[in-house]
Design a protein that fits this description.
The protein is mainly alpha-helical and about 80 residues long. Helices cover about 65% and strands about 0% of the residues. This is Periplasmic protein. It comes from Campylobacter taeniopygiae.
Amino acid sequence: MKKLLFLGLLPIIALADCASLMAKYEAPEPESKTMKQIERWINKKVKDANDAAVLKECMVARAADNPNQVSVAGK
């Protein structure tokens, strides 16, 4: 039962980490970037491998398919 509760809260914890990591590294808004642009930005700016993995996962989920149109890869 505790595992189920923990797994249910995991996305909430990840979102909190994402917001704090985006603020820490002054990340660009992922909706205005493609997945490749986000990957390049993370490779340049984020040196901590753990932070990079978490930040990449949450930013890529919100990345734009095409930043010139209103379409998001995660939807």
